[in-house]
C-alpha cells in the first residue's frame, strides 16, 4: 500500500468582512507554544503540522504520512480544525478558498528566501495569494518516480477540474472555475512538462533550469508534478485547495491510484501516452476555465468531451488500483457526491447568487471548510 500525505494552503480572513488578514505570524507564534488541549482530541491530531507560506494572509497544514484513506481523511479535518482554532484566538478564521474573493494588500512573510523571491519576480510575487492542495505519494526510486510523472501528466487536468475552487479574485468574478491556476501559471516553471524518459533526463532539466539564474533554488521548480526534494515521493500540485474536506480526500485517493496505476504500467513495459506539453497546457486551461461545468479535453486525444465523461475515464483508469487498497467504494461515493452538488467553484457562485456579496461567499464557505 503506497504511502501518501496532503498539504493544504488555507486563507486567513476577518470573520466579519471576509477580507484576507495578515495574521500568519501570530497564528504560528501560538502554534509554537500551544498544547492544543482544547481542540480535536481524536487520534492523530498532533501529527498535523502548520507552517508559514509565502504571505502572511495564509497558512499551510501538512498531514502525517498515511497508508489508509481513513487516516488521511481524519488528518485533513484535524489540520483544518487546528488552523482555524488558532486563527480564532487572534480574531481571524482559516478558510479553504483557492483565492481571496475580496481585494487584499499582501504582506510577504519575512524570511530571506521569500523576500528574495519577491524581489526577483516583482508584481507576480506581490499578487501571489493562492491556496493549493499538494498530494505526496510514495515511490520506490527516482526512476519509478519519473516513470510515474511521464504517465500521469495527461490525467492532471481532470484532477484540477474536480478541485476548482477559485472563481473570485480581487473583488470580481473572473469567469474561471480556478483562477488560482491562472495566477500561479505566471511563475517561471509552472505547468506541464514533456515526457522525461529517465531520472537522468529529469535531473538534467532541473540543472539546466538552475543554470539560467532565473530560479533562486530547486524549490522554485514548480512543475505540475515533480519529484520531492525532501521525501521519497512524487508531489502532484495541480489542485486548488478544496472547499469541502471530503473533496480533498477524493483528490488524494485518485492521485494515489494514478501513481500506482502508472507504476504498474511502467513495470509492465507500457509506454506513457504521447501528448505534447502545449496540448496539455490547453487541457489545463480548459479545466481552469470551466472546471466540471462544460467540456474537458480527452486525456488521450485532446478533443473536447463532456466533463463527466472525462471524469468517468479517470475513475475507470484508476479503479483497479483503488479496489486493491479498498478505496473504490469510498472514492465512487465521494465522486458521485461532488458531481451532484458541484465543486467549490460552483458552491461559491451559488453563495454569491444567494447573498449578492463576497462577504456572503466567505461566510458561507466558512460553514463548509471544517466539515467532513
Description of the molecule:
The chain has 372 residues and is an alpha+beta fold. The protein has a single domain (4-369), classed as Creatine Kinase, Chain A, domain 2 (2-Layer Sandwich). Helix content is 47%, strand content 13%. The chain has 14 helices and eleven strands. Strands 1, 2, 3, 4, 5, 8 and 9 form a seven-stranded antiparallel beta sheet that branches. A two-stranded antiparallel ribbon has the order 6-7. Strands 10-11 form a two-stranded antiparallel ribbon. Helix 1 packs across helix 2 (69-89), helix 6 (156-163) runs parallel beside helix 10 and helix 11 packs antiparallel against helix 12. The radius of gyration is 19 Å and the shape is globular. The two termini are 24 Å apart.
The gyration radius over C-alpha positions equals 19 Å
Question: What value does the average pLDDT take?
Answer: 95
Separation of the first and last Cα atoms: 24 Å
Instruction: Work out the strand percent.
Output: 5-15%
Helix/strand order, N-terminal first: EHEEHEHHEHHEEHHEEHHEEHHHH
Concise structural overview:
By secondary structure, the protein is of the alpha+beta class. It has a single domain (about 5-370), classed as Creatine Kinase, Chain A, domain 2, CATH 3.30.590.20.
